[in-house]
# Entry
Amino acid sequence: MNIGLFISESEKVISKTIDLSAITKNYKDLTSVKIFNNITSSTSIKEIKDEIRAKSLRGIVLAGESPLYFKRIRNADTVVKAITEAGINPNMISFVNLKEQVALPHRSMPREATKKARFMIDVGIERLRFVHDVGIVGVTPKKSIAIIGTTTGGLFAARRLLERGYNIHFIDKSGIRDLRDYKEQAMPTLAYLKNHPDVRFHEKPIKELYGYAGNFRIIFEDYSLRAGGIIVAIDDDLKYTEELYPLLRIDRNEQGFFIPIISDTATVETVNPGIVVIPYKVDRSLSYIIMLSDSASAILDTLLSQKEIKHEVFVSEVDEGVCGGCGTCVKTCIFHAAELDPVKKLSSTNIKRCVGCGNCVSACPTGARDQLSAPTRFLISAIQILSRYQPPDGIKVLYLACEGCGYASLDYAGRMGLEYPAGVLPLGVKCGGRIDTQLILEAFRSGFEGVVICKCQDGRCLNIVGNTDLDRRANLFRSVLKSRGIEPERLRIFGVRECEDGSCVGNTLEFMEYLKTIGGRR
Amino acid sequence: MKEKVKIATGHLQGCFGCHIALLDLHEDIIGLLDMIDIVRSPVNDVKEVVSASLGILDGSVCNTENIKLAKKFRERSDKVLAFGTCACFGGINGLRNLFLLKDVLKRGYIETESTVDGKIPSSEEIPEILPRVHSLDQVIKVDYYLPGCPPTPFMIKKVLGAILAGKEPELPAKNLCHECKRERKEIYIPRREFITDEVRILMELERIDQERCFLEQGVLCMGPATREGCEARCIRGNFPCRGCMGPTPDALEQGAKMINALSNIIPAGALMFTEDVVGAGYRYTLPVSIIPSLKEEAR
# Structure
């Protein structure tokens, strides 16, 4: 396979610690190796596109910034877009986090950082050996929007969207809410909406909600509706937030209110594209609410004005030759995405519902299910590669971080300048529910002294039951380790409250101290 | 008449049940004997390992004598078949890997309740016991596998038939649930809760519905993590699967897969696993699991 390794210096932040030219010497057999000082600049993007086409590359390893940077920071996705436009399937891009998880936290030990960076890049290359292209489906966006919460923010957003020609569905099980401090200003809007032929009010609880940007299906007790996008504007109704959380799967802050991805650069966008939130804050001014509701309606309008929205189908796939139809995945999948094919009597994946969390992959007792983004055999191989790094103090810890807050919090710690030993080797997994006993065993077999699982705090798992199922499995992991003479305490699981929570570093350092006190495994 | 295929059989460490299982072929054995010539076998009491087209070995590798015999078979047979669960995965004997050899010997020869003045035998005549039990393919190259404790007549016929016909024998790849005729209902309903809150043991026979899935009744059954091919014989006899056919080809190890699957299905599975994880999940496959033994120094 023609593989290109594109390394970002991130404006010299990475190259200050990691000796990139020394690293590139190891990858002479790759089709293309390039270093960019600023990977998001227009010249870099042009060069990337040209290189992919000129060398007919099939897979890309993007080493530099965290994968979350490209997903969450406004306009950083141009790099990924350019790569896919040049003909690379989104699943054939491996991200290697050299900045937040190597260069920043190990800035006082450049030699070790350089050594570790190599193994991390090796993992990125290895991934391309195990994955294949994902399907891309086009959705014609529905010209209707569901607004959950008849609050001031919701009403103003509706007004804007009506002007742009959308149908509006107000959903609020509590009926029209008290508009509080801004009653006077919002009453005319409410009156206008009530008489508008394109507005409907649904005063009942939502039973089920699934789908993706452009086409969501919202199911009530007796009927259902479709919406292209969803605005969540329920203010400080915590009970309702609790109820909606399993359906919407968007982040909540410490107080329990729904929040956008990043409060400063993405004020209303959530982790779930097509769903935007008008976040609640005490003492919001009316102008602030209007700003947010305008922002929310503008984002949805931009999204839904497209002729077609493309979705990458990152789901779990079933090997029908191995699946026996036992139903374990069907029971496990809280999103109702694992279904039993009534004719074949085998399991299948409903791509409209599947969020790709991988809990069914762990649960599948035959190994028939696998995750498109991170197949089990890749994860096993990645653990073996990472284990080859020899830290100076000898203590190696595999740090499995869930894609919810586990991974993001480690990035955050890096950005905050928290340092930790290079022997902490991170491997991102989709969810705590994806953590398979086989991975833990492989980690200890390959010589890790300890394993950390960093996941979202209980009750905050984006995949709803991922944490529950991880906990159920964890007790058994420990028994299995004990039976092989490995202290069960060598497996440490902790949750982080939110993505901006640096406590993971303190916890890990404390764990490493503990590992020193119990001594080496051999 | 076509020349008969020369077959040698040998026994490593085990209960000899796999050799006996050949007799389970009943009248089919007559047809088989027309096609094969058993040149060496414990059954016809030929001890010398002579050359053969196919070497069939049952049992696991537990001592130096086993290694010697396995290597001779490999040398003198064109193809080698690992016959039965012990040869394929190490089998029940493999559970010894959970303990250090010195503790096993002490327990076996000195500490057993009925032993008086026991001592650990040592003589040059006795083959040396290995610190760890191995599957056959950890010692020699194996061409074909036929799991089962013991293998069922149907599978023996199918696998031997294919080999004698010069074809690659194919083992089924799905799990036992595929063959199991019991009704499953609860497991097809997505939810956070377990599929049942009950925990039952096998003795409660009168309370176990013979038509319904064992797991849905709170009885631990290894079926989901076990390869099919045995025609669910135990289950038809109202006895849950214990996993002797080993893992499906896509699973890296049977015990870990069972833990992943069962822990969120039934409290019983979780409960029993916690009590005896290895006994339940790794009963037949510990030597081929990811971490096969108690301590590294036992290697």
Q: What stands out?
A: The CA atoms of residues 131 and 374 of chain A lie 7 Å apart.
